């Protein structure tokens, strides 16, 4: 379980860079087109949430509370991005990936808690 958390955290940190570059480009495009969309900003917020969740997931991979914090950041980022996708359709893919990461980490946290209860 600790390895899964570390792998997801590292993938999240790497994807954060890609999401940030795409979101900056979309934000500039939205500004130049004067479309009034906020999908670029939502992408930046998702990138920050994925960065924070990835760092916490790697740093606190042995901790139940650290895993729950990561799940919360992934879930908030995914919901924010999915609600504000607009014409930036890649944002739907990134929010789905963040949601999948949240579910996987939640499952590992539940398994860790159940394993700790069995030891008592």
**Number of distinct helices:** 4
The helical percent reads: over 70%
Low-confidence stretches: none
Specify the oligomeric state: single chain
Question: What is the 3D shape?
Answer: elongated
**Number of DSSP E strands:** 0
> How many structural domains can be distinguished in the coordinates?
1
Rg:
16 Å
Largest sheet descriptor: none
| Helix-and-strand structural type | mainly alpha
Order of helices and strands: HHHH
Overall mean pLDDT: 90
Measured between the Cα atoms of the first and last residue, the distance is: 20 Å
Q: What portion of residues belong to β-strands?
A: under 5%
Describe the structure.
The chain is mostly helical and 120 residues long. The chain has one domain. The chain is built from 4 helices and no strands. The chain has helices spanning 2-33, 39-59, 64-83, 90-119. It is elongated. The model has no long low-confidence stretch (mean pLDDT 90).
Summarize this, please?
With 120 residues, this protein is mainly alpha-helical. The protein has helices spanning 2-33, 39-59, 64-83, 90-119.
Name the descriptors.
120 residues, 0% strand, 86% helix, mainly alpha
Annotate the secondary structure layout:
Blueprint: H1 2-33, H2 39-59, H3 64-83, H4 90-119
């Amino acid at each position: 379980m600790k390895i899964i958390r570390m792998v997801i955290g590292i993938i999240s940190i790497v994807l954060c860079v890609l999401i940030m570059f795409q979101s900056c480009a979309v934000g500039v495009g939205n500004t130049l087109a004067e479309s009034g969309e906020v999908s670029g900003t939502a992408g930046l917020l998702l990138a920050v949430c994925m960065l924070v969740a990835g760092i916490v997931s790697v740093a606190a991979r042995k901790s139940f509370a650290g895993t729950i914090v990561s799940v919360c950041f992934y879930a908030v980022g995914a919901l924010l991005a999915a609600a504000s996708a607009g014409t930036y359709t890649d944002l739907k893919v990134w929010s789905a990936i963040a949601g999948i990461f949240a579910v996987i980490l939640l499952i590992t946290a539940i398994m860790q808690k159940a394993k700790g209860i069995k030891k008592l």
